[in-house]
Write a structure and sequence with these properties.
The protein has 2 helices and 4 strands, in the order βααβββ.
């Protein structure tokens, strides 16, 4: 299920992003950056309530937006989460 991210999701989102940042596939995001932009984030939650993916959509203009920090937990890829 896709839902808006909550304050309680921030640390999990950062861990997901950090895994990709360590590999050089994504820019890292600090906790403060995620908290400041939390309204832009969505998470994918498994049936048991575990966050297995996240992404942010940053609206720049009326008809222009950017997808940021799209991350899916290792082992959950290729299942339609991203």
């Amino acid at each position: 299920m896709i839902r808006k991210a909550r304050m309680s999701d921030v640390k999990t989102i950062q861990v997901l992003i950090a895994e990709y940042a360590r590999k050089g596939d994504m820019l890292p995001r600090s906790l403060s950056s995620i908290y400041e932009n939390l309204r832009d984030y969505f998470v994918y939650e498994s049936e048991d309530g575990e966050v297995i993916g996240s992404a942010a959509i940053h609206i720049m203009w009326e008809d222009l937006a950017e997808v940021r920090s799209l991350a899916v937990r290792e082992g959950e890829m290729r299942r339609g989460v991203g």
